[in-house]
Design a protein that fits this description.
2 copies of one chain form a homodimer.
Chain A: H1 2-32, H2 38-45, H3 49-55, H4 59-79, H5 87-115, H6 118-124, H7 126-141, H8 151-170, H9 179-191
Helix pairs in contact in A: 1-2, 1-4, 1-5, 2-3, 4-5, 5-7, 5-8, 5-9, 7-8, 8-9
Chain lengths: 194, 194
C-alpha cells in the first residue's frame, strides 16, 4: 500500500512537472510564433506528443491554459502594487508596474483572441479588470477623475493604450524607457477633469 | 486555337470565381469562428478542398489574402471620405465613417495577428495609416491638434480607441449608436491642445 501510494505520488509529481514544462514551452513558442504547433511545443518542452495530448486534448485547450497562466501571473504581480492613497498616484504606480506585463502577454492574448470565445477572454481578465475598476471608481468618487464618461469605457481605453504601447515598442517606434511616461500622460489626458 | 484560348479563358474565369468565393467564405467563417479550418471554409465556399488548396497553399496564405482584402476594402471606403478643410471636422468625418469598418475587420485582424508576422500586419495597414497620418500632421501644423506628443503615438492610440470601441460594442457595454460620439470625444481629449 505504501509503495503504491508513493508510486501514485511520483506519477502525479511527474504529471505536474510535465504540465509545467508544457505551459512554459507553450508561452515561449506561441510568443515567438503564434501558429506554433503541438509538435513544436512538445519538442520545446522535452516531452512526447502523446504526453502533451494526455494533458491537453487540443491546441485550444493548451492555449486556454497558457492564457489563464499568463493573466494569473500578471494579476499576482499587480496584487503587490499599493493602490491605496491618492487615486492619481495609485494609477500611475499601476501603469508603471503593469505595462510590461500587458506587453509580455500581448502575443499570447492575440493567439487567444483568435482561438477562444470572447466571453472566455473576458472572464480571464475579470480579476485584473476588477482591480482597475475599483481604483478608477474611487478616483471618480473623490473627484480625482472625470465621471462624465462610462467607467467601463475608461477601463477599456486604458487597456487599449497599454496594449498599443506594447505594439509601438515592439515596432521600434517608442523606446521602452519612454513608454511609461507616454502611457501615463495619455491616460491622464483621458481621466483628468476638464 | 480559338477554342483553346476560349477554354483557357473559361478556366481562368472559373479560377477567379473560386478565389472570390473562397475569400468571401473565409471572411464569414473566420469572423464567426477564428479557428475555422480549411475544410470548413471550402465547404462554406461550395468548392472542393483540393481546389481551395490549389489557390491557397496553406491556411496562413489564405488568412493573408483575407486580411489584405478586408483592409483594401476598408481603405477604398475611407478614400471616399472628404479629408479636406478643417482638420478637426475632417477627423470627425473619418471616425464616423471608419469605426464600423475597424469593428468588422477586428476578428479577421485578430486571426492575422496570431498567424502572420507583425511586419506583414503593419505593411497591410500602410495605406489607411498614411491617410490618417497626413490628416493629423496637417492638424498639428495648423495648430488644430497638439504637437507635443509623437504623431505615430497619436495614430496608434486613435487606432486602439477604434479597436476598443468595437470590442465594447461586441461585449454589449456600449450601444452601437453611442460609439461614434464616445470615440470622437475620447480622440479629441487626446488631440486637443491644452
Amino acid at each position: 500500500m505504501v509503495r503504491t501510494t508513493a508510486a501514485v505520488g511520483a506519477k502525479r509529481a511527474d504529471a505536474v512537472r510535465n504540465i509545467e514544462r508544457a505551459l512554459d514551452a507553450a508561452v515561449t513558442c506561441l510568443s515567438a510564433r503564434p501558429s506554433a504547433t503541438m509538435a513544436e511545443i512538445a519538442k520545446q518542452a522535452g516531452i512526447g506528443r502523446v504526453t502533451l495530448y494526455g494533458h491537453f486534448a487540443s491546441r485550444t485547450e493548451l492555449v486556454d491554459a497558457v492564457v489563464a497562466r499568463v493573466v494569473e501571473r500578471g494579476d499576482e504581480a499587480l496584487a503587490q502594487v499599493d493602490l491605496d492613497g491618492d487615486p492619481r498616484a495609485a494609477l500611475e504606480r499601476l501603469i508603471r508596474n503593469s505595462w510590461r506585463l500587458v506587453d509580455e502577454a500581448r502575443t499570447v492574448v492575440a493567439v487567444a483572441e483568435a482561438e477562444l470565445p470572447p466571453e472566455r477572454i473576458r472572464s480571464l481578465h475579470d480579476s485584473p479588470a476588477a482591480r482597475v475598476q475599483a481604483l478608477i471608481e474611487r478616483g471618480r468618487d473623490d473627484g480625482s477623475f472625470r465621471d462624465d464618461t462610462p467607467v467601463t469605457w475608461q477601463i477599456a481605453v486604458l487597456h487599449q493604450v497599454l496594449h498599443g504601447a506594447g505594439a509601438e515598442v515592439a515596432a521600434g517606434r517608442v523606446a521602452p524607457a519612454d513608454a511609461p511616461d507616454l502611457i501615463t500622460a495619455t491616460v491622464f489626458d483621458l481621466l483628468d477633469r476638464r
